Automatic annotation (TrEMBL):
Family matches, as Pfam families: Alpha-L-AF_C, ASD1_dom
SMART domains cross-referenced by the UniProt entry: Alpha-L-AF_C
GO-annotated biological processes: arabinan catabolic process; L-arabinose metabolic process
GO terms of molecular function: alpha-L-arabinofuranosidase activity
Pathway the protein contributes to: Glycan metabolism; L-arabinan degradation
Similarity section: Belongs to the glycosyl hydrolase 51 family.
Swiss-Prot/TrEMBL keywords: Glycoprotein, Glycosidase, Hydrolase, Signal
Protein name: non-reducing end alpha-L-arabinofuranosidase
SUPFAM superfamilies: (Trans)glycosidases
Record's signal peptide: 1-28
Gene3D superfamilies xrefs: Galactose-binding domain-like, Glycosidases
Reaction(s) catalysed (UniProt annotation): Hydrolysis of terminal non-reducing alpha-L-arabinofuranoside residues in alpha-L-arabinosides
Annotated source species: Aspergillus homomorphus (strain CBS 101889)
Amino acid sequence: MRSRLSTTMHIPVLSTLAVAWLVGQASAIDLTVSKTGGNSSSSLLYGIMFEDINNSGDGGIHGQVLRNSGFQGTSPGLTAYAAVGNVSIAQDNSNPVSSAITSSLKVTVPSGATGFVGFANTGYNGVPVLATTYKNSFYIKGAYSGTVNLRLVGTSSGIVYADHNITVKSSADKFTSHETSFKSTQSTDANNEWQLRFDASKVVGKSLNFGLVQLFPPTYKSRPNGLRNDVASFLAEIKPSFLRFPGGNNLEGASPSNRWKWNETIGAVVDRPGRQGDWTYANTDALGLDEYLYWCEDMEMEPVLAVWAGLSLGGGIVSGSALGPYIEDILNELEYVLGSTATIYGALRAKNGRAEPWPVKYIEVGNEDNISGGCSTYASRFTAIYDAIHAQYPELTIIASTTSSSCLPSTLPAGVITDIHHYLSPDAFVALFDEFDNWSRDHPILVGEYASTKGNDGSTTYWSYMQGSCAEAVYMIGLERNSDIIKMASFAPLLEHFDMAEWSPDLFGLDSSPDSITGSTSFYVQQLFSTNRGTTILAVTTSAQFGPVYWVASVSDKKVYYVKLANYGAAAQNVTVSIAGASQGTLQLLSGGEHVSNYPHNVSITPVTSHVSGKGSFAVNLPAWAVAVLAVS
Ligand SMILES: *[C@@H]1O[C@H](CO)[C@@H](O)[C@H](O)[C@H]1NC(C)=O
Ligand SMILES: *[C@@H]1O[C@H](CO)[C@@H](O)[C@H](O)[C@H]1NC(C)=O
Ligand SMILES: *[C@@H]1O[C@H](CO)[C@@H](O)[C@H](O)[C@H]1NC(C)=O
Ligand SMILES: *[C@@H]1O[C@H](CO)[C@@H](O)[C@H](O)[C@H]1NC(C)=O
Ligand SMILES: *[C@@H]1O[C@H](CO)[C@@H](O)[C@H](O)[C@H]1NC(C)=O
Ligand SMILES: *[C@@H]1O[C@H](CO)[C@@H](O)[C@H](O)[C@H]1NC(C)=O
Ligand SMILES: *[C@@H]1O[C@H](CO)[C@@H](O)[C@H](O)[C@H]1NC(C)=O
Ligand SMILES: *[C@@H]1O[C@H](CO)[C@@H](O)[C@H](O)[C@H]1NC(C)=O
Ligand SMILES: CC(=O)N[C@H]1CO[C@H](CO)[C@@H](O)[C@@H]1O
């Protein structure tokens, strides 16, 4: 995605008028679902797109909850750190933890100090303190032999939620790492910190250095350095089919040297330097290439791996022969992902804990190369990268990062998927309902990013609301009707840390308070569509016109019929759906006021499921601004 201000869109006026006119018409809509024929539907249709934006990775889905652990990025300072007791703390780059983690935290104890002193880390606007077991690790340098006390404490309240001692014997010459785990009780809010304290009397007039502090609540599928279990489990409810990663703009870098470098996101976290991401903050890259692929494996998603293709956001475009080394780097990356352990990079992958190659089949070449000055060189950059990959891995499916034909080679190789992105108002999405009806069938499509990001009046949307989510559903019905060419579609962005976001709306979010994980109204649209998928899209006969009600029908291999409906209008609508022979099933309904949103700790719009029965015919009463799925057999 591009920054909001640079986005210019044509919003057809026609659709607003058409919808307004149709809203006044309240006649029953009869839909008859054909039981024969139809086009097969893409099995990958609904997936997710992820990049580190809005602290969606660090501070979001990644399990590590302390911030600034490695003093990464351009200006880490003492962000998130505080002294505990009468000590002074400082970033110390003369005591690097490793060649990648180039600073540590120096804690100096004045003479005369007594008791337990140390430092705190306040996480990403607080540390999530849950009733669970945490894993905790840190590096220490400096002579110390005695108790290290680890706590989770309310920053203002002083309430101690976890209190755990370990015995440490550390050295003055080198960093040693220590790992432990402890149980915590739950805080009621986000205003918490993690503390590390030690016996001041043993360090008076001296200092100790600490590095790479890490704190993990339980991780998804118990992976080491994994995703937060609560966050990933919430997301898994969507049952996404693919993961497009690692960007997005965050792939691109402000300059070529600052791009996302796959080889600096692998191996032990202490060997990952991190980088200044493209969304104003430092990325630790603890969520790295292998972690993305474990995420895919654990959530049963097809990986869609984007590779850097010469475009960076600061205007540095690398093309022609200068692109050569970067193409080499892509091939190295693919060898790391796909190569046998007999290859150099395949062996490195095995050394990093994964002997078996990753099952990657889709590679996207760049991101949004029709903008940011990329268009004029993309055809040649794409071709060079395509040729290099295809020669070695002919079985891979390659994705071009744009559908704009003026930026693509005049003849795109067969099988290449093209990627289109839309950030639009509700009416503009509805106007694109038939976007793909007339589209050439020559190349499949990935709708790699889309979301309703502004109101029909042009106002910025912070929290998705029912009208926009309903418009997305209308667009998705259009995608599903065209899923002979629409192979994959993903809403974006996926996730935000609510109080640390630079882009909204996001599909779901959280802050550091318990039970803050919140699905937007659009989250539930994605869930409804993704968890109710047919394998064949069926024709529907009716005398009704599309708008304000939209529909698509499908059938699964198990002969469950799905009819997805959206009512993009302020009046209720009655729909009768006829499916010969079907007698019962469920109706899942999501609806709410036009401008109503879900908020943290205040979720009012979620799908409601009811049982339905009928003799080949089902009456569906659609409230205003509704999205529904009838699933019957
Ligand atoms: C903290 O230590 C400094 C330096 O030794 C001393 O001057 C000061 O009084 C101490 N403050 C407290 C609150 O103990
Ligand atoms: C940790 O050790 C300190 C110092 O010995 C002691 O005062 C404290 O009670 C211990 N805390 C726990 C939870 O064992
Ligand atoms: C990663 O690869 C790039 C070349 O693309 C190289 O410049 C860099 O030094 C490598 N980083 C590490 C840690 O090996
Ligand atoms: C780039 O492609 C997007 C769709 O992915 C489109 O909305 C936008 O208008 C295009 N921009 C240019 C300058 O071609
Ligand atoms: C697609 O074709 C139909 C029928 O010719 C036309 O009404 C419609 O406007 C076209 N849609 C787009 C997005 O071009
Ligand atoms: C199947 O695809 C063709 C070609 O795009 C289209 O004309 C037809 O309407 C589709 N049928 C269904 C049931 O979606
Ligand atoms: C929809 O049907 C219900 C009966 O099921 C009826 O009460 C209502 O008036 C109808 N609404 C519209 C908009 O036709
Ligand atoms: C919860 O959200 C609803 C609908 O968005 C709103 O009307 C209500 O005021 C909110 N309640 C609180 C306690 O914020
Ligand atoms: C607009 C906004 O809130 N941006 C914030 C995004 O997050 C970083 C830190 O992660 C903040 O520095 C930005 O201010």
